[in-house]
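User: Structure please.
Assistant: Input sequence and predicted structure:
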Amino acid sequence: MYALFRDRKSAYIVSVCGNPEQEDLVSMRAPDHPPVIILGRQAELIDAFVAAFDQDGVVALHGDTAVEQADDAADSIVLILDETRADSMFSGHRLAASKRRARLHQNDVCDSTVAVALRTGPRRLLVVCDARHLSFGQRVRVVSWIRQLLHRVGYECAINGLQNLVTRYALIDHADEVPRTAARAVEWHRGHPADGPVPQVPLSPCGP
């Protein structure tokens, strides 16, 4: 019987279980291709993206120890924004208060994302937002917020030595877009163009 698990260094260990005298440990190194780090807290989307990368043979790490498990090296970062946070940022009738909440949250997300990026040196950053229950007005403001975030992250990374970070974002409007967006992220991570053909979901650039 074989038991598969992963240690803190992302090495895969196969434990060959049976006769105690014949028990053996075989170390299988993680793929040479650096892993993907997934940031966020929405379990449904995180599980979908982890499953999509795993199905394609790409190690996707998530959680408090993801950076350590990646040995401080990642090829792509996927940042998932949950709809609850987006709704709370842009709800209410007081525009000034809403803008202040959005700006404070953007500061926090920018700082944490830049810290992970500078430590792991990725080539790509994808922001995915669950917009399934947002109003049209909230959706428009979320897109603007994400584009500003990506500009800030790109600038902070560039002035701190991480050049040429490619950024994209995607909004999920329907449940059937979850697996398609996850599959599109895998293709982009593998080096395919971000504006893939229909029925694939395009990943939008943040623009000038």
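Residues 1-30 form one domain.
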